[in-house]
Structures are given as C-alpha cells and as structure tokens.
C-alpha cells in the first residue's frame, strides 16, 4: 500500500502546487513527483485536490498516475482537470472542467468532469487503464475548488448508512442540508447563492471548512 500527499510552496502566499510525495506502508518517502503544466513555471498553479491515484488508472503501464484539479493563478482562476504519472508527464489536460470521479463500466474505466461555467454540463471519457482495488493509492482529500464561486465538491466517507450533511456559516447559522449516500464519496454543492465567507460542513461528527468568494 502507498500513500500520496500534495506538496505546496510554503513561501508562496497562494500555496502553489509543487508536486506530490509518495510514501510506502511504513510512511517512508519513496518518490517525489514534480508538477509542471505545459512548460509553465511550477508556481503558476495551485492544487484543489488529489481526486484519485493508483497504477493502471489512466493506461496499462506500471507507473503511479494521479487525477486532480488545478487552478491557474493568472487566468481568472479557471480550473483544469489533469492526469499525470509518477514522472511528472501530463497524460491528459482539459481546461474549464472539474474532475468528479472515476468508475468502472464492465472492464472499462471511465472518468467524468463538470463544466466549471455550466453546472449542468458533464463530459465522460474512457481510459485505457484497468485499476484494481489493490492498486489504488490512499490520497489526501479536501473540498475543491477552494475557494469556490459556483460549485464545490465536498468529500465524505460513510460506513454503509445514509446520513445528512449540514452546512454552517462562520456565525454557526445553518445554511444548507443535503442527503449523503454511502454509494458515493463526495457531493457537489451549488454555492453560487452563498454570501462570500467561510463555511463549515459537518456530518456524523466530521467537519471541514471551505471558502466562498
């Protein structure tokens, strides 16, 4: 089993994404994966979230592959869905889309993405990979994009039972309530009508913060 964490630039106010750190089951660092995009300087992008990682995720070689969302600091915060491998090679890049998740249809792996400018638009792609549960890598999960303007993905983990998620503003006032299904691991929340500020979502005693611009 391996673990992967995103590494950010502590000297950059925007928290620029530097790359990823891969650890083995004993939490020993085994690999550092640099992140650059289309030749751009590394501090041009900030990471939203490592959505999923593992071998045989995007293709059939034995390299670790990572699917994530990033946002450019210099183009109005437009997000990108990106797949990279452990060598830092870009396997896929699509402007304006948020990676939602990966799922299996028969022997085929597919991933879907939401159009950042149109909440109802969805694109679905098939990969060449054949990821198994044993090849998955445990990843760091957090709300993304964060800050958000239109939509935000809020990750969660349930143990076989549905529950409710509550969203509170910084004053502790209830803003929203959503039903969570154990068949998913995240919910997409429309925050376009939220006032700018800090919010907290809570379910089953677990809570995380996110920001609306």
Provide an overview of this structure:
The chain is an all-beta fold. It folds into 2 domains: 1-140, no CATH class; 142-213, Sandwich (Immunoglobulin-like). The protein contains no helices and 17 strands. The chain has strands at 3-8, 17-23, 29-34, 45-55, 64-72, 79-85, 90-95, 97-105, 108-115, 118-126, 136-139, 151-155, 163-169, 174-180, 186-190, 197-203, 206-212. An 8-stranded mixed sheet has the order 3-2-1-11-4-5-6-7, with no helix packed on it. A 4-stranded antiparallel sheet has the order 14-13-16-17, with no helix packed on it.
SSE topology:
Elements lengths: L2 E6 L8 E7 L5 E6 L10 E11 L8 E9 L6 E7 L4 E6 L1 E9 L2 E8 L2 E9 L9 E4 L11 E5 L7 E7 L4 E7 L5 E5 L6 E7 L2 E7 L1
Can you summarize this structure?
The chain has strands at residues 3-8, 17-23, 29-34, 45-55, 64-72, 79-85, 90-95, 97-105, 108-115, 118-126, 136-139, 151-155, 163-169, 174-180, 186-190, 197-203, 206-212.
Order of helices and strands: EEEEEEEEEEEEEEEEE
Q: Could you say which structural class the secondary elements and strand pairing correspond to?
A: mainly beta
**Rg, Cα atoms, Å:** 17 Å
Order of adjacent strands in the largest pleated sheet: 3-2-1-11-4-5-6-7
Low-confidence stretches: none
Q: Let me know the number of strands.
A: 17
Shape: globular
User: Biggest β-sheet, characterized?
Assistant: 8 strands, mixed
Task: Give the tally of structural domains.
Answer: 2
How far from one another are the termini?
38 Å
Count helical runs. 0
Beta-strand residue percentage: over 45%
Overall pLDDT metric: 78
Task: Bin the helical content.
Answer: under 10%
């Amino acid at each position: 089993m391996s673990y992967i964490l995103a590494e950010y630039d502590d000297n950059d106010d925007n928290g620029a994404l530097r790359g990823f750190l891969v650890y083995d089951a004993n939490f020993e660092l085994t690999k550092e994966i640099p992140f650059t995009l289309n030749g751009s300087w590394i501090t041009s992008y900030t990471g939203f979230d490592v959505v999923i990682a593992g071998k045989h995720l995007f293709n059939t070689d034995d390299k670790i592959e990572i699917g994530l969302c990033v946002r450019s600091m210099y183009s109005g915060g437009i997000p990108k869905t990106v797949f990279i491998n452990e060598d830092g090679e870009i396997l896929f890049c699509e402007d304006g889309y948020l990676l939602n998740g990966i799922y299996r249809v028969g022997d085929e792996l597919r991933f879907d993405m939401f159009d950042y400018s149109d909440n109802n638009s969805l694109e679905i792609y098939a990969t060449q990979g054949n990821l198994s549960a044993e090849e998955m890598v445990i990843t760091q999960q957090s709300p993304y994009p964060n800050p958000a303007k239109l939509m935000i993905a809020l990750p969660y983990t349930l143990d076989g039972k549905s529950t409710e998620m509550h969203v509170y503003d910084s004053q502790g006032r209830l803003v929203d309530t959503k039903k969570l299904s154990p068949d998913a691991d995240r919910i997409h929340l429309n925050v376009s009508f939220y006032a700018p500020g800090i919010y907290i979502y809570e379910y089953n005693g677990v809570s995380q913060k996110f920001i609306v611009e």
